[in-house]
Write a structure and sequence with these properties.
Elements: H1 2-13, H2 18-33, H3 38-45, H4 52-66, H5 71-77, H6 85-95, H7 98-155, H8 161-175, H9 177-197, H10 199-206, H11 213-233, H12 238-246, H13 252-265, H14 271-278, H15 286-298, H16 301-358
Helix pairs in contact: 2-3, 2-7, 3-4, 4-5, 5-6, 6-7, 7-8, 7-16, 11-12, 11-16, 12-13, 13-14, 14-15, 15-16
Length: 359
């Protein structure tokens, strides 16, 4: 039981990263280009993965494929892979374009890696500052304030109300630390449940968050344009291509709009008309819709979608720096206020104490 528990914990902290998936996709594409079938390519690649968890996952996928399961089904069983993998691989299998599919998946994973690394790098300093601030605040609350409390008590002078309130709050927190940890964990689980059970509301929130909105907007438009181009280029008809694309978009509202558009297309409407009609929330960038309209008229819709995706890819790289800066300011500002508060909390008792002694 203990061994299984430890294995579960270790697996949790050794999840493959976007960079691991990027390297895997590049390797798979190279082996496919050399003429190997997918299961043999994975068998060659699996032992050389740096992430041990990914090694085990790939061995399971190979075993499933060897007993007749499709690659898409085998990948879909492994929840550690991003949602984009299974439906994209399914499209590649249908169109016999797995090499190109894994090239495109590598591009997607590289984009995720660069985006996340930029944000994480920007937030590294505030994260360290946050830990130091928590340690300083704890030390101040448990070492300095008790000394002030003792000093006031021995002199018979009443402690200022702001200090006594702070002392009571700190003591209440540490005396009931276990309860607070349970509450925080409950909030964490509650938020995860909310995100899982209210995808459309979460999608609306993401598109309205002041700092995150431009990043998310460009990301989902990039996903839409690049994946629809990929599906169409793989030889799928436009209805199936849109339905497959809908499954790999990280926004429930846009996913729903693209799927509804695919149903409208079955009546004979153009891609542009169908998307414009189905997109009630106006999530699809007008620029992307314009490119689709021009591409349909010129008979080069794949190329136009790829151009639209490239524009949003460039926008993403520009927006992520701005978002990272704003997030850094957002995190550091309360820390600065906390420092000012600590300074005042150390100054007020001393001023009050000496003032009362003089009187």
């Amino acid at each position: 039981m203990k061994i299984k528990f430890l294995e579960t914990i270790l697996a949790k902290f050794s999840q493959p990263s976007a960079m691991d998936f990027y390297v895997l996709c590049v390797q798979v594409s190279a082996f496919l280009r050399a003429g190997l079938p997918l299961n043999q390519a994975l068998a060659q690649i699996a032992p050389h993965q740096k992430n041990m968890q990914l090694q085990k996952i790939l061995k399971t996928i190979i075993a499933d494929m060897d007993v007749g399961m499709s690659a898409a089904e085998a990948f879909a069983k492994q929840k550690q892979f991003p949602n984009i993998f299974a439906p994209t691989i399914e499209s590649g299998e249908k169109a016999s374009e797995l090499e190109e599919i894994f090239n495109k998946l590598a591009e997607q994973m590289w984009l995720r890696t660069t985006l996340y690394s930029k944000i994480n790098s920007a937030l590294l300093t505030p994260k360290i500052a946050g830990v130091l601030m928590a340690l300083l605040l704890t030390g101040f609350a448990k070492i300095m304030i008790p000394q002030y409390e003792k000093m006031f008590k021995e002199s018979g002078i009443a402690m200022p109300w702001i200090c006594s309130t702070f002392v009571n709050a700190v003591n209440g927190f540490f005396n009931n630390l276990l309860i607070f940890l349970v509450i925080f964990y409950g909030l964490y689980r509650g938020i995860k449940w909310f995100f899982r059970t209210h995808p459309f509301l979460v999608a609306k929130i993401k598109l309205k968050m002041p700092i995150y909105k431009p990043l998310h907007y460009s990301l989902i438009n990039y996903q839409f344009a690049s994946n629809l181009a990929l599906m169409l280029n793989s030889g799928l008809n436009v209805v199936v291509a849109c339905q497959q694309t809908a499954r790999v978009i990280d926004n429930a509202l846009l996913e729903q709009a693209v799927y509804k558009a695919s149903l409208v297309m079955q009546t004979g409407a153009s891609i542009h008309q169908s998307l414009a009609k189905a997109d009630k929330s106006k999530i699809i960038d007008p620029l992307v819709l314009g490119f689709i309209d021009s591409g349909e008229k010129a008979g080069s819709i794949v190329e136009m979608l790829e151009d639209a995706a490239e524009i949003h890819k460039t926008l993403l790289n520009a927006v992520v720096d701005k978002v990272s800066t704003k997030l850094t300011i957002l995190v550091i500002t309360p820390m600065g206020l906390c420092m000012v508060g600590m300074y005042l909390m150390s100054l007020v008792p001393m001023i009050s104490y000496f003032d009362k002694l003089i009187k």
